[in-house]
Amino acid sequence: MADKATLTLGGKTIELPLIVGTEGEVGIDISKLRAETGAITFDPGYGNTGSCASAITFIDGEKGILRYRGIPIEQFVNHPDFIEVAMLIINGELPKRADRERFRDKLADNAHLHEGMKHHFDGFPSGAPPMAILSAMINALFCYDQNFSDPESDESFEDSAARLMSKVRTIAAYSYRSSKGLPYNYPDPKLLYCGNFLHMMFSMPHRPYEVDPDIEDALNLVLILHADHEQNCSTSTVRMVGSAQANLYASVAAGVCALWGPLHGGANVAVIEMLESIRKGGLKPEECIKLAKQKDSGFRLMGFGHRVYKNFDPRSRILKNACDKVLGKLGVKDPLLDIARKLEELALNDPYFVDRKLYPNVDFYSGIILRALGIPLDMFTVMFAIGRMPGWIGQWKEQHDTPGGRIYRPRQIYTGPTIRDYVPMDKR
Ligand code: ACO
Predict the structure, then answer these.
(1) Whether the model pTM is above 0.85
(2) pLDDT in tens, 216-230
(3) Among all residues, which ones are annotated catalytic?
(4) How many angstroms separate the alpha carbon of residue 247 from the centre of ligand 1?
(5) Which residues contact 114 (CB under 8 A, 6 or more apart)?
(6) Is the CB of 387 under 6 A from ligand 1?
(7) Which side of the chain, N or C, has fewer Cβ within a 10 Å radius?
């Protein structure tokens, strides 16, 4: 392939350099385009725009490949250790045993919240969406952590990463406890990351939660599968906010808000609502598929389709297998699993979905596992956020460490009125 692209515009021809990634994907560097031609590119939804170079996650959407720092996602299935994966994503390498223990100690040391923070939970009305609480509380956390976000030193940054990951998990559990009017459980330093979360969610004063290793493994796997996914909507938001040199906490809080949307992480709730409405008889699977194909219905088959994957999302394959395994081990029979399988079968044999290359995405089966683990529906997207923390933290750090970084500032094609005069109020 040539090492440059040429563009002719208004009789002038310019050469645009190519950038080639380590997996051979090609980008046309248009950073001088406007200076040389006066024109900009137009790409609503950024489907053809590379916003950065990144060494963290590789996706080949055509082939259905996902790798963290080069390691295929499938290879983590038999090693469900979310902390190891978090360190891989943030630092670039799998940790040695001593490094993992050091990070685990930091997570344990930072699991508690400042007592002053607990009062913030009381200020939210009952029924407040946990994603709203999570985002607000991450910003509040910065007020208690202002000295801990020095990204210049690796050691100090590791402290910040551990604090944020650990406290986000505590905030998530406390937002649930507060919404149910239940007493908060202090973190237990003897428990590992996922077990401690389950304890803070479910222990009662008279009945401590007993961590089942199968549940702990399943939760580790779910979090691993959500740990990073390159420049998706929430991660791009984290980078957008981070590009203004906003601190890590503010950037991640913004990422939580983006993730909340039903077209993004909020889809894991929407999928269960859709499956529930089928189970209750409101809709037959065939009607659901029909509705999803009618553009004017405003209805989409939730958990299906993806901007990047035009093949199976490998995470959905892993989760589908995990559903069978986890539900079997826990002895859970969930009618929603059969409905999901039926919907998948119908969609994968329907020309509408086949022609558009719409396959199940990560959200299609994740909710069924979360239900089996006892996680309440309104916490599903929060679980996604806990899982995505390493990705947001690693991407923020990578952006911070990249020399010559500029503030993100897309342009637009203006389509409003041309110049006109102000009209005083009594003449309008
Ligand atoms: N149901 C029905 N039709 C769909 C669906 C769906 N779930 N997804 C896409 N389509 C159709 C579109 O209407 C469009 O049809 P057209 O070509 O006739 O106009 C075509 O497939 C291409 O879809 P786009 O809208 O261009 O896909 P885009 O990349 O913009 O959106 C998205 C991707 C948002 C994920 C979309 O597939 C969707 O809404 N899915 C359901 C929500 C969901 O599951 N979101 C979670 C995604 S994974 C994540 O963020 C963690």
Answers:
(1) yes
(2) 999 999 999 999 999
(3) 306, 363
(4) 32
(5) 144
(6) no
(7) C
